[in-house]
Specification:
The protein has one domain. Helices cover 62% and strands 0% of the residues. With 274 residues, it is mainly α. The C terminus is likely disordered. It binds zinc ion (2 copies). The site of one zinc ion has 6 residues, from loops.
Length: 274
């Protein structure tokens, strides 16, 4: 019995590590391409020691996730429903929507002076890279993964929950997290104003959160930021600049509202002279 439990724990650790490192590795490969270098949101180098700090945090996250997944499967695994497509879709949708809300609320709380110390590890990155997607303090990771387990337990009270839906959501979460921390704008200029772009955020959106600390607290969707007034007004302009190959060069840089037309920008004396 005991040896089976240990085997399951080791398996959780290997799977947790392999999946995360594969996704980060793929992201890293894309991050280093010349397209990525052209479409950087912030054209700045990573801070000295950033990657080392993120790598240590990622190791802790891999172990922490494996332990939590193992505990969940040990205590609640028998309550999971057998696979079926509708149940998998339902589980996926519940996790996607529920975790957006959980992440937004806890992320905002973690930015209060009292709790920021637990979120500071994630903000070692003012300029992000794929590994930032795994750079969290253990306290923050327990809050995040614990929240997703709480969502599953809540769901189990009212509907069937299946493993495939959970796994599919976790994979989506890892993939989008690496994309969101790529500091590279992969989506075309018109995306932000399209209906999809009004629902889902882009790498620019989250890169601005890391550079400015406040605002843009959402995970993968923009609704909560829009409803609670925490979007940056120059987001579409920063996005357009990244796509034009003219990403921001200063962390504190904001792009003012529509540029003043040249004719209006001239001083009165200049106008008379003309
Ligand atoms: Zn982040
Ligand atoms: Zn933050």
């Amino acid at each position: 019995m005991e040896s089976t439990l240990i085997k399951v724990l080791v398996l959780a650790l290997v799977v947790s590590g392999l999946v995360k490192l594969t996704v980060v590795g793929l992201g890293w490969g894309l991050w280093r391409t010349r397209w990525a270098e052209r479409w950087r949101v912030y054209r700045r180098a990573l801070a000295p020691g950033q990657l080392r700090s993120e790598a240590w945090a990622a190791a802790g996250v891999i172990v922490c996730d494996a332990l939590l997944v193992w505990l969940f499967r040990y205590f609640y695994g028998p309550r999971l429903a057998p696979f079926s497509v509708p149940v998998a879709l339902l589980t996926y949708a519940w996790m996607y929507v529920g975790f957006e809300v959980w992440f937004y609320v806890t992320h905002r709380l973690l930015h209060t002076p009292l709790l920021y110390r637990f979120h500071a590890q994630h903000h070692v990155a003012q300029v992000t890279d794929p590994l930032t997607s795994l750079s969290f303090s253990l306290v923050e990771r327990v809050v995040l993964i614990g929240g997703s387990i709480g969502l599953l337990l809540l769901a189990m009270e009212v509907m069937p929950v299946t493993n495939a839906g959970i796994m599919a959501y976790l994979l989506t979460n890892y993939l989008l997290n690496v994309l969101g921390h790529s500091n590279t704008e992969w989506f075309p200029t018109g995306f932000v104003s399209s209906w999809v772009g009004r629902l889902f955020l882009t790498p620019t959106f989250h890169a601005m959160h890391h550079a400015r600390y406040k605002g843009h607290y959402g995970l993968f969707t923009t609704m909560l930021d829009r409803w609670f007034g925490t979007t940056f007004p120059d987001y579409p302009r920063v996005h357009a600049r990244a796509r034009a190959g003219e990403g921001l060069v200063r962390i504190g840089e904001w792009l003012p509202a529509d540029p003043v037309p040249e004719a209006l920008a001239a001083t009165p004396s200049q106008s008379k002279a003309a």
